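Hey, resending since the last one bounced:
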Amino acid sequence: MMDDPHFGFIVAAYLAAFIVFVGLLLWIIFDYKAQKQLLAALEASGTRRRSEGDKR
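The C-alpha coordinates again:
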Protein backbone atom coordinates (compact mmCIF):
# COMPACT_ATOMS: atom_id res chain seq x y z
CA MET A 1 0.00 0.00 0.00
CA MET A 2 2.81 2.44 0.83
CA ASP A 3 4.31 1.77 -2.60
CA ASP A 4 1.18 3.20 -4.27
CA PRO A 5 2.15 6.37 -6.17
CA HIS A 6 -0.97 8.14 -4.89
CA PHE A 7 -0.48 7.25 -1.23
CA GLY A 8 0.73 10.73 -0.28
CA PHE A 9 -2.23 12.41 -1.95
CA ILE A 10 -4.68 10.06 -0.25
CA VAL A 11 -3.18 10.68 3.19
CA ALA A 12 -3.12 14.44 2.58
CA ALA A 13 -6.76 14.43 1.45
CA TYR A 14 -7.89 12.51 4.52
CA LEU A 15 -5.82 14.77 6.77
CA ALA A 16 -7.30 17.91 5.19
CA ALA A 17 -10.82 16.53 5.55
CA PHE A 18 -10.15 15.69 9.20
CA ILE A 19 -8.81 19.18 9.90
CA VAL A 20 -11.84 20.79 8.26
CA PHE A 21 -14.20 18.51 10.20
CA VAL A 22 -12.54 19.29 13.54
CA GLY A 23 -12.54 23.01 12.71
CA LEU A 24 -16.26 22.99 11.96
CA LEU A 25 -16.96 20.98 15.09
CA LEU A 26 -15.04 23.48 17.24
CA TRP A 27 -16.79 26.39 15.54
CA ILE A 28 -20.18 24.85 16.32
CA ILE A 29 -19.25 24.25 19.96
CA PHE A 30 -17.94 27.79 20.50
CA ASP A 31 -20.89 29.35 18.68
CA TYR A 32 -23.33 27.30 20.77
CA LYS A 33 -21.74 28.58 23.97
CA ALA A 34 -21.80 32.17 22.70
CA GLN A 35 -25.46 31.91 21.69
CA LYS A 36 -26.35 30.46 25.10
CA GLN A 37 -24.64 33.39 26.81
CA LEU A 38 -26.42 35.90 24.58
CA LEU A 39 -29.77 34.27 25.28
CA ALA A 40 -29.10 34.28 29.01
CA ALA A 41 -28.17 37.97 28.84
CA LEU A 42 -31.37 38.78 26.95
CA GLU A 43 -33.51 36.86 29.40
CA ALA A 44 -31.76 38.53 32.34
CA SER A 45 -32.51 41.96 30.85
CA GLY A 46 -36.22 41.15 30.69
CA THR A 47 -36.52 40.35 27.02
CA ARG A 48 -39.06 37.61 26.54
CA ARG A 49 -39.41 34.99 23.83
CA ARG A 50 -42.23 35.34 21.35
CA SER A 51 -43.14 31.72 21.88
CA GLU A 52 -44.04 32.46 25.52
CA GLY A 53 -47.12 34.37 24.38
CA ASP A 54 -48.66 37.34 26.12
CA LYS A 55 -48.62 36.57 29.87
CA ARG A 56 -49.69 39.91 31.29
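The helical segments are 7-44.

Sorry for the duplicate.
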